[in-house]
Specification:
- It is a single chain.
- This protein is of the alpha/beta class and 163 residues long.
- Helix content is 55%, strand content 16%.
């Protein structure tokens, strides 16, 4: 199990057999949720704050993978985005990266270890990004103790010099 086990990976593909096969291959290492299209995936993202990574197919009805990942980028920018597709032309890859903010573009069929490695990297990036944000949120509210210590020292020295 990974250290980010409580975070979920959302697999989106309109092929139920592929989704089932991916779930079987990945569920021992990752917490998997699935959707069969873009609108369902966006609904899951809106309802589940534990989704950290999305892996989307390119060719889906209603909303293609790039449209989905663009929407995810706007709605939940912290979610790491990957594309797993049989459509490996250069224009698709460029659009996936430029428009959808995809961190990895994987071709079907994808080697199991390559996919697991990409998911671990995405989960690590998500965890690191959230740790950074948490640190930024905590720091401004933490008082700067060095000023307090310096003021106390100067006050004590002034008192000593006066006596």
């Amino acid at each position: 199990m990974t250290s980010s086990q409580h975070k979920k990976v959302l697999l989106v593909d309109d092929e139920p057999k592929l989704i089932a096969a991916l779930r079987r291959r990945l569920s021992l290492d990752f917490e998997i949720v699935t959707a069969t299209g873009g609108p369902e995936a966006l609904d899951l993202i809106d309802k589940d704050p534990d989704i950290a990574v999305i892996v989307a197919d390119m060719q889906m009805p209603v909303m293609n993978g790039i449209e989905l990942l663009k929407a995810v980028k706007v709605r939940a920018p912290a979610i790491r985005r990957l594309m797993l597709t049989g459509n490996s032309d250069q224009e698709t890859a460029i659009a996936a990266v430029n428009e959808g903010g995809v961190m990895r573009f994987l071709r079907k069929p994808c080697d199991n270890e390559e996919l697991k490695s990409a998911l671990r990297q995405a989960l690590d990036e998500h965890a690191f990004q959230n740790t950074e944000k948490l640190t930024e949120e905590i720091q401004p509210s933490t008082p700067d103790r060095s000023d307090d210590a310096r003021d106390a020292f100067l006050s004590m020295m002034n008192h000593e010099l006066r006596t």
